[in-house]
Design a protein that fits this description.
With 296 residues, this protein is mainly alpha-helical. It has 11 helices and no strands. It is globular.
Length: 296
């Protein structure tokens, strides 16, 4: 059990580090260009793993439609919105707002799949909402702040992007849930989802008025995007699978959702400036709400 829970925290740490790594490339390339390059790299990685392990055999024709829909909603649209939010409000606020994907998924499961939520789950939803509000609106750094914390646009707009990304992530999870319940290998399923999203992102880069597929990508930016993809979709998701193989799903889900808290000391070390008190309180309350939802 201890290994499972350490793996869960390791996944959250990977996603926290990934957010800090992504901020520079996202603000240089833009959200869509960043996500396009990231998905191409991740697809190559997932294809290699799926072919090497032979897990594609768990896929059937009937699974493809649900996974494709999940990939379009959760990755093509959701991840692009997530990185747009990151571009505007920075990694700390973005991580807290995006954590609402967990309670949104729980609420959708209750409404769509008729899964029990209960009083503890409802309280968790309220705590998540309150925690996000505290972290975003009472967690502003004093003075000019570091460039990583700088707003590039309106705060409310960035929050809206991150919330929309969380909604898409939750919806993508619900769309994929029946397929995963049928016993499809998670890596093979991720490969299909990423392939569909990647195709959509590549097509979008060829539309009139766009800057092209990989315009402005330098070797350094390519390396940073590759590391971000490896941490998030490679190491992070692998650690979650390891954790779920032996750990309690509720505890694993809670621990792997601690990214909003783990990113704070990383941000402190990176910028040399202590994150505001509201950021710490809001992140802790948000994770506490997630804990109630998953362990109700």
């Amino acid at each position: 059990m201890t290994v499972s829970y350490l793996a869960s925290l390791g996944a959250a740490l990977c996603w926290a580090i990934g957010g800090l790594i992504a901020i520079g490339p996202v603000r240089t390339l833009g959200a869509f260009s960043f996500n396009r390059l990231r998905m191409v790299i991740v697809l190559v990685m997932l294809l290699a793993v799926t072919l090497a392990l032979g897990t594609w055999r768990t896929l059937e024709a009937g699974h493809l439609l649900g996974l494709a829909a999940s990939g379009i909603v959760g990755i093509l649209v959701g991840d692009s919105l997530l990185f747009r939010g990151l571009q505007v409000i920075g990694p700390r606020r973005n991580a807290v707002v995006y954590a609402t994907a967990a309670p949104m998924a729980a609420l959708m499961s209750w409404l769509v799949l008729d899964e029990l939520l209960g009083p503890a789950g409802l309280l968790g939803l309220l705590l998540c909402t309150g925690g996000v509000m505290v972290a975003v609106f009472f967690g502003r750094p004093s003075g000019d702040g570091h460039a990583v914390e700088r707003l590039e646009g309106r705060l409310i707009g960035g929050v809206a992007f991150a919330l929309a990304a969380a909604f898409c992530q939750a919806a993508g999870t619900i769309l994929a849930k029946p397929v995963m319940a049928a016993g499809v290998d998670p890596i093979a399923a991720s490969c299909v989802r990423v392939a569909v999203a990647c195709a959509g992102l590549l097509v979008s880069g060829l539309l009139p008025g766009t800057s092209g597929l990989f315009c402005g990508v330098t070797p350094r930016l390519f390396g940073l995007v590759a590391v971000n993809g490896m941490l998030g979709m490679g190491i992070g998701m692998t650690l979650v699978l390891v954790a779920l193989s032996d750990g309690n799903p509720g505890i694993v889900s809670t621990l792997s959702s601690t990214t909003p808290v783990l990113i704070l000391p990383l941000l402190w070390a990176y910028t040399g400036r202590r994150p505001p008190l509201g950021g710490w309180i809001g992140a802790a309350v948000t994770v506490g709400g997630i804990a109630l939802i998953f362990n109700r």
